[in-house]
Amino acid sequence: MRKLIFAAVIMAAMVMAGCQSNQKRPSAGSNDSIPSENAVADSTVYGVCGENTAMHTLELITDKGDTLSYAMQVEEDAQVQGGLLSGDRLAVIGHKNADGEHVATLVINLTTLCGKWTSIDKNFEIEEGGIVKSNVQAETNPWTSWKICNGKLVLNKDTFQIDELGADSLYLENDKGIFTFKRQK
């Protein structure tokens, strides 16, 4: 009888050890994105705004160390959210035109996006590295993480289009409406 109990305990321990080794462990992501099991391929290029950025040309020093030059032509309706300042961290959505040139269609200034934002019911801080800190203790579903994915801002599982990003204002839109935030000083 003891041998049977001992064998059952050994078998249970082996099954538990096998299950633990098959568990997935989270992998480290880039500074501006958070890994997810249902991850969508992100076409965003991340980097720093270069010194040779002009009215119709964006110089981007990518996170991979490449220097890309993006055309930002009026005909292409390129949107720049948050401004362009040399040294600021950017997220760029674009494509190559027929001539093989990079064309930016959306530029989001991540340096401008980071900071403290407030509205009637939200008071939060977007930090580098995908972290959001809520400053309202009684909030039921505070945002805790952020990333840019294909030109959209993802706060936890809520996805927003950035309608406007300025020095002191942020307008986000999704299927539930338009949300207005002002920068907290």
Can you offer a commentary on this structure?
By secondary structure, this protein is mainly beta. It is 13% helix and 42% strand. It is built from two helices and 14 strands, in the order H-E-E-E-E-E-E-H-E-E-E-E-E-E-E-E. The chain has helices at residues 2-21, 110-113, and strands spanning 45-49, 57-62, 67-71, 79-81, 89-96, 102-109, 115-118, 123-127, 131-134, 146-149, 152-155, 158-165, 169-174, 177-183. It has an eight-stranded antiparallel β-sheet with strand order 9-8-7-14-13-12-11-10. The longest helix is centred in the N-terminal third of the chain and has 20 residues, at 2-21. The model is unreliable at 12-31 (pLDDT under 50).
How do the helices and strands line up, and which of them pair or pack?
Elements: H1 2-21, E1 45-49, E2 57-62, E3 67-71, E4 79-81, E5 89-96, E6 102-109, H2 110-113, E7 115-118, E8 123-127, E9 131-134, E10 146-149, E11 152-155, E12 158-165, E13 169-174, E14 177-183
Parallel strand pairs: 3-6, 4-6
Antiparallel strand pairs: 1-2, 1-5, 2-3, 5-6, 7-8, 7-14, 8-9, 10-11, 11-12, 12-13, 13-14
Give structural attributes:
mainly beta; 13% helix; 2 helices; eight-stranded antiparallel beta sheet; 185 residues; single chain; five-stranded mixed beta barrel
Query: How is the main sheet built?
Result: 8 strands, antiparallel
Strand content: 35-45%
Oligomerization state: single chain
Quick check: average pLDDT? 82
User: What is the strand tally?
Assistant: 14
Tell me the distance between the termini.
72 Å
